[in-house]
Amino acid sequence: MGKFYISTPIYYVNDNPHLGHAYCTILADFFARYHRLKGDETFFLTGTDEHGQKVQKTAEKEGLSPKELADKVVLRYKELWSKLDISYNDFIRTTDDRHTKGVLKILDKMVEKGDIYKGSYEGPYCVSCESFFPEKDIVDGKCPDFGHPVTVLKEESYFFRLSKYEKPLLDFYSSNPDFVLPQGRMNEVKSFVEGGLKDLSITRTSIHWGIKFSEDEKHVLYVWLDALSNYITALGFGSEKDDLFKKFWPCDIHLIGKDILRFHAVYWPAFLMSAGLPLPKHIFGHGWWMKDQSKMSKSLGNVVDPNPLIEEFSSDVLRYFLLREKPIGTDGSFSDEGFIDRLNADLANDLGNLTSRLLALLEQQFQGKVSEGDGSLKETALKQLEEYHKAMENFAPKEALEIVWSFISTLNKHLVEREPWAKPRTKESEDTLSEVARALRLISLQIAPAMPHAAGTIVKSLGFAPSTFKTFSWDEKQETRAYRISNLFPRIDKKEYFKELESKKDKTVEQGKKENNENHEQKTISIDYFRTIELKAGKIIHAERVPKSNKLIKLIVDFGSENRQIVAGIGKKYSPEELVGKTCPFVFNLEPAKLMGVESNGMILAGNLDGEPILLQFLEEVPPGSKIT
Ligand code: MSP
Prior knowledge:
The chain is of the alpha/beta class. The chain has 20 helices and 26 strands. The site of 5'-O-[(L-methionyl)-sulphamoyl]adenosine has 20 residues, from β1, α1, α7 and β11.
């Protein structure tokens, strides 16, 4: 029995959780459950990253304080984790007091080491947004958020002597070649460090939402120093109650997405070296779930919401699909079709059929009795179990599940070959069915980290005592009584399913049309006709009055793929300044027109109050260019 500590990244609270976030957390839960089953004392940490400019800005847009926004989004994360049966031991929030205390303690140690000094940070600065932006985000001298002009500015900042750790990091990588996994990613990290490390600016005076640097309170800590520290502050580092830190640090594996590898494999170990603390054992950079060839992200509008999938198919099915469908290290593309195919093939057919066939035969022929069996499957079972353990230790969920499924298919074949249905109530049939039942008990254990509900149901239906559900071994002693259960994974008729999805959509449209007809005497239009009008969300990035008009305002509107000039008659009600940054609905395919000599390529939509136009806004942020349907 050993110890195992696994963490997920802490998620930003400027975004609702999507399938990509769920993936990383499911992976961590999968390994945590496996280690618990093995008897390891396990600590599984997740949480939220709540400070910094991104959160501050989203909160401003939503008219909330950053903490109010965080409280709202944290609930969505916790709700989703509970629906997905995520068995975390702790949920850390970077706004927790315990976290702040721990971070300041780490920083104290870095200061003591002489690794922090005061200097100045120079970079592109947007006066309107009051913030610095990374050089790479500046397009045509404009800030990425609102297209305001930026200037290069200097700001006082404290720096961390990252350059000092270049050599120690390279030495560490050489003596720990599997520090970063998968292996290929270790090389990426090494070459980055070999390219030279510059000292890192770790405070800002232009950001207000964050942990204040105790030595100089007008400075707020860089969000990554704050965030990375969660892995030890959650264990009580820096407080009197630090038994968890003593027990579980260093962490066995920080599971993260490949996009945040550098922070974890370069900065974090350097911070820890500076603070005189041991380094984590592994950093695993997993691949992404993509949709339509791109990484899911709120700004691209291509996120998959896991909630409807859980509601329709169960958390077990979604967990299994995500773990089994693609190798952990590479990217995979999500499709509804792939999802249904996987469910039907692996769950309804292979596992579902094996279970229901076996339980039915046991009941029909032996009133459910599972006897000792003849040991004929034991060797194969233990051999695949060994392979499975290897895959699990190598952090390879897809491969581990493939091993189990290959065994499931062996068992299905075994039944076909032995034909117990043709030899009812014979000793041979009893042995065959009892052997398969024992093998299926073991399989349940092996799939429990992926599908805790299904696994528990199968073991119970086979009549094995819950206590046997903890040992990865061939249980030959217990005689049990199995009982039939309803179909674990009903097969989905793909055609029907997609037809139903379509008809759900059509029904909503029909319903709307009907209501429209009932409510209005006037002439109606068909949905097809309505669809000829292209409506899109556009973000106003520039606004100015049309000379000599008190009503017209010339807008430059960002539609994602292009910026357009649109003239709007809203100047009596709104000033250009208050329009910049707003995302509103527009008619996109209106023929161009000239208003007081200024060309307009579209039309803003507005309500009406006492003859004045009132602009419309979205309840949630939508990306520029997204269609309004
Ligand atoms: N807050 C930082 C992490 C700090 S850890 C000390 C952060 N947060 S995040 O919310 O943007 O992303 C969290 C994790 O979700 C990252 O590991 C990221 O790779 C993962 N994913 C976000 N979208 C993803 C997919 N589409 N697919 C798989 N995982 C992806 O970064």
